[in-house]
Each structure stands twice: as C-alpha cells, then as structure tokens.
Amino acid sequence: MSDMGLVIVGAGGRMGQTLVRTVHSMEDVRIVGAVERSGSPHLGKDAGELAGLGSLGMPISDDPLPVFARADGVLDFTTPDATVEFAGYAAQARIVHVIGTTGCSEEHEAKIRAAARHATVVKSGNMSLGVNLLAVLVKQAARALDEDFDIEIVEMHHRNKVDAPSGTALLLGEAAAAGREIRLAEKSVRVRDGHTGPREPGTIGFATLRGGSVVGDHSVILAGSGERVTLTHQAEDRAIFARGAVKAALWARDRKPGLYSMLDVLGLS
C-alpha cells in the first residue's frame, strides 16, 4: 500500500509545525498539503522551512479544497469553528479526519457527528497514547473506589492555552464519571470561590492552572479518609500528540465512516 497522504491544517502554529516534523519523520505517511487561515502571516511559506526541516516544496495555502481532494486524511489541532469547517470538507472528500481540537461546544460536536456519516473521524481530547491509557485506569479506579473517595482533577498548561478545563481534563472527568455511572455534566464542579460550604458527595472537581511553557500536566486524585490514590500523566513534548494523531490516521485509513476515539485506535474501548 502506498504512503498515506496527509494534510496538516493550522500548519503555521506550534502544533502544526510539530505535525509537519512528525509526519516527515515517520514511515507510511507523507505530507500532501499544508493549510492556514486566511490572513495568516505564514501563507506562501514552505511548511518544511517553517518547521525547521528545510524546503519540502510544500507552500502553505488558505484554500483547503484542492489539497483535501488529493489527500487520504487531515490532521487537525485548530479551533472549534475551523474544525467544523474542515469536517465538512473531509466529509465531502470522504477522507480520514483526525481531530485533536479542544473546547468544542455541543453545537460543534453535533456538526462533527454529522460529518462522520461520510468521513472517518477520530476525535479525542488528547491524542497521547499514555493519556488514553490513563483514562482507562481512571475509569477502573472510579468504579472500584466508592463515593467515600472524592475525585479531583488538576491540570496545568502553558500561559497561552485559551480553554479551561483542558480537553484532557474533561476526557479524564468523563472516564471517572463513566466508572461511577453518573453524568459528568450533572456532577462537575469547575469553580470554588468564597464560602462554598462542605464538598458535595459524589461530585468531580476540576482545578485549572496556567503558566509558563508547560505542555500539559494532569492528575486525577481519589481522596478517601486516611488515604489518597493519584494517577498522573506529564507531557514533556508536543510530539507525543503528533505521533498519536498519525497512528490514529493510519488506523482509520481503511475504516468505514463513523466517529471513533483514541480508545478505539488502541483497542481499549
């Protein structure tokens, strides 16, 4: 089988440049297009040169249609509105769409689900293989330890991250809620300020930290009387997300259209 041709959207950003370097370094995949938003200062630049690889003969464009038409898949770590737009193009081209974008609303999610009727979509709040394994362990721990163990999720990211809690924190929260057989939306506590009173039993708390250049730290704390269990993942390099995204694209290449997760990719669903 020939190498899988991938389009990288948001190619001028930090994650986009990481994706360019990662795809270029991995077997069975190749870059066939690089896309940025209209007005981006990176338009017309060579994606390889921007990523520090030297020229790849791949100028960055703001027109996704022709590059999607010649691609087998697209790697997308952009913004919710952009992802919905790209989902439509991927559905039209009937190609693989790997989505690592976070901060999507229910309206965005509904449009992505609709696109997945025609495209093979792999979407996750975190593409890291380690984080998705952690989510499985969190679900098991939450199921094994009853409500005498309070669940708190602590996350820290770099100062420029715009959504909170992070997509990974929410992924872990959903895993914990599934283990307890509850709905996260009904038991989630996002803010504590002032005189809050005692902690409500059965809730799942989130604490968000922002600062510096932290790629991503996540801890799930199950706190009981006299003991605590802490499950932790620390991301030290954005390349872990890029490698996971490429693995997801290769896994999805021959799959039927539908909405999948990294748990499907890893055989952990």
Percent strand: 15-25%
Distance between the amino and carboxyl termini: 27 Å
Give the low-confidence spans.
none
Biggest sheet, spatial arrangement of strands = 2-1-3-4-5-11
Summarize the main sheet: 6 strands, parallel
Which descriptors apply to this entry?
269 residues, alpha/beta, 6-stranded parallel beta sheet, 11 strands, 36% helix, elongated
Would you spell out the secondary-structure blueprint of this structure?
Blueprint: E1 4-9, H1 14-25, E2 29-35, H2 47-50, H3 64-69, E3 73-76, H4 80-93, E4 96-99, H5 106-115, E5 120-123, H6 129-144, E6 150-157, H7 167-180, H8 184-187, E7 188-189, E8 204-210, E9 216-224, E10 227-235, H9 239-252, E11 258-260, H10 262-265
Parallel strand pairs: 1-2, 1-3, 3-4, 4-5, 5-11, 6-8, 7-8
Antiparallel strand pairs: 6-9, 9-10
Task: Explain what this protein looks like in three dimensions.
With 269 residues, the protein is of the alpha/beta class. It is 36% helix and 23% strand. It is built from ten helices and eleven strands. It has helices at 14-25, 47-50, 64-69, 80-93, 106-115, 129-144, 167-180, 184-187, 239-252, 262-265, and strands spanning 4-9, 29-35, 73-76, 96-99, 120-123, 150-157, 188-189, 204-210, 216-224, 227-235, 258-260. Strands 2-1-3-4-5-11 form a six-stranded parallel sheet, sandwiched between helices. Helix 1 crosses helix 9, helix 4 runs parallel beside helix 5 (106-115) and helix 6 (129-144) runs parallel beside helix 7. The longest helix is centred in the middle third of the chain and has 16 residues, at 129-144. The radius of gyration is 19 Å and the shape is elongated.
